[in-house]
Amino acid sequence: MTPERSNVQVAPPDEFPVIGAEYDYGAVTETFSSIVLTRPTPREWYLGFGVGFVLVTVLLVAATILFTVGVGIWGINIPVAWGFAIVNFVWWIGIGHAGTLISAFLLLMRQKWRQSINRFAEAMTLFAVMCAGMFPLMHLGRPWFFYWLFPYPSTMWVQPQFRSPLVWDVFAVSTYFTVSLLFWYLGLIPDLATMRDRAQNRWVRRAYALLAMGWRGSADHWRHYEMAYLLLAGIATPLVVSVHTVVSFDFAIGLVPGWHSTIFPPYFVAGAIYSGFAMVLVLTIPIRKIYHLEGFITLRHLKHMGEIMLATGLIVAYGYLMEAFIAWYSGNIFERFMMWNRMFGPYGGYFGALMLFNVLVPQALWYKRVRTSVPALFLISLSILVGMWLERYVIIVVSLSRDFVPSAWGQYAGTIWDYLTLAGTIGFFLLGMVVFIRLLPMSSMFELRAIAPRGAGADASAR
Amino acid sequence: MYGVMAEFATPERLLEAARRANAEGYRRMDAYTPMPVDGLTEAIGLGHSRVPLIVLLGGLTGCFGGFFLQWWIAVLDYPINVGGRPLNSWPSFIPVTFELTILLSAFAAILGLFALCRLPWPHHPVFNVPGFERASQDRFFLCIEAQDPRFDPQATRRFLEGLGPQGVMDVAE
Predict the structure, then answer these.
(1) Most buried among A32, A360, B40, B116, using CB within 10 Å?
(2) pLDDT one-digit tens code per residue, A119-131
(3) Which domain holds residue B28?
(4) DSSP codes of every residue in B112-171
């Protein structure tokens, strides 16, 4: 069906191949299943697990105090009622978008280089969306009533207001999580069967067998499987775009200067992809080093991700430029003040840092030397992750703190609990990723077999 | 007896064997491979998948059901007058309609796949074949089933042995 699945293809000779020339079907299977089943767990894994565990503990403490005392422990106030919680929500959900984009959009675009990274990029999506989802729930004040957000026959005879973007957001994010989980599990089934067939321990084998549901790789199954996978990719691609569009509606539909702008949906989606690919690089670079996967995650992958970051970064920079231009061109005094205040007001430092981390530093990606340098890519990705967090901070906090009437202005700063909660979700994300790497094959073995170079070479000699 | 199974080292040999078996008149057969093999569906003689139809039905259900849910809530069950604007303010209902279309399509794709493949199916006769665990790793298997009208334990075995396999095994029921 899709050419990249064809197993008679040889990777074209290339400066940076998609997959090292020495890997055949057996080597693909051995490499990724042995990481889980036989190879000793590397020391770095324990380090990641330890850091993640400590930070998750911090998250639990912060959440416990939050639920006991209330959202007053955070820095939020009136007028800045959204603060860190919504900054972090938008940041995390944006990070998640790269995973779906790699697995779905690049599949539709027949990009063979997605095969090595799609599985853990999708896992990244799941954990990032979980982190994102925590924030609006904690921000509710009474999180135990979260189900009031859904339409159900309640004894209070009330229903959600479907004209509100916040209700759209509930549906967008919960659909996104569900579909990402289904897509991820669908991609795992053939690999779970491989794990079942390779596991030595009886209970481990049973656990994988249960999850693989008796997959036997029959031609009859593959024809349905490939079609279902392709269709899920086809529906996941517009879903990603819709999710961050709806997130941007949370702002754009409000009247606050700095929010009420039609450029928000495209520039939010581009920003989401931008930060998501940065997070994929931040994860990929240590993983390929620790597990010696340089033959599967080659410089080709890193370079392509750098190119995507450069392209989406330019769209984001264009968004900043247009916001400033429209603020001036509109002649609206509130818009002009918003822009002036954003650049030179009390939060001007955040804006300067945003320009540095998100616009200036990534311009280094124009150079191929930088795009093929692993440490440079790692540092630029970190810069983008910080920059994208600052972007949401500038949009939310600066706009809310100075709206129309000066008597309603206020000042905002995150408290220690805001920072600890953010750190806690980073730990949750890290813990999720390291546990995933330990328990499941981190790359899609069945899709890598289809592009394994020696598969075709070995056949020629067998004939 | 469930059938006779041959093991091949490469997808090309499996494809060739499947085509020859089809030409020989065998219809009840299946291949087991560690990844999708281009052209195998046709070589075995299987038709198109019906997953797309199921996904379409799921998507339509989500689309119309989702819109109806919002319309029913906003117009009939819990009407709120917002500055005299129409209760059926349908443009505001599009995002949730879209999300529910996607959600139900995705569930239809997964559940439709499981139903068409009859999964979960933990105990299948092919799992009894020694060495079958390589079907999920690096070997390619073709099984001609005993239900085929042309099946004959001896003749079918000889036919498969003539296709250049790594080995031919009986599959016990």
Answers:
(1) A32
(2) 999 999 999 999 9
(3) 3-48+124-171
(4) HHHHHHT------GGGGSTTGGGGGTT-EEEEEETTSTT--HHHHHHHHHTT--SEEEEE
Reference A279, options A170, A441, A117; nearest CA is A117
The position carrying tokens 């809530």 is: B73
- Residues B91 and B62 reside in one and the same domain: yes
Q: How far apart are CA B164 and CA B14, in angstroms?
A: 10
Same domain, B59 and B113: yes
Helix residue ranges, H only, A253-347: 264-290, 299-330, 333-344
d(CA A171, CA A158): 18
Report pTM: 0.92
Is B73's CB within 8 Å of A6's CB? Answer: no
Cα end-to-end span (Å), chain B:
5
CATH number at residue A311: 1.20.1630.10
Shared-domain flag, residues B107 and B160? no
Q: What is the ipTM of this complex?
A: 0.94
Q: Are B110 and A186 in contact (CB under 8 A)?
A: yes
What's the CA angle centered on A236, arms A283 and B63, to 5 degrees? 150
Place of tokens 């007896």: B1
State the Cα–Cα distance between residues A329 and A323, nearest whole angstrom: 10
A246:B82 CB<8 A: no
Closest Cβ–Cβ partner in B93, B98, B119 for A214: B119
CB contact under 8 A, B123 and A226: no
Same domain for B102 and B64: yes
Name the residue among A146, A131, A117 with its Cα closest to residue A282: A117
Q: How many domains does chain B have?
A: 2
Query: The tokens 């799921």 sit on which residue?
Result: B58
For B136, the closest of A158, A172, A190 (CB atoms) is A190
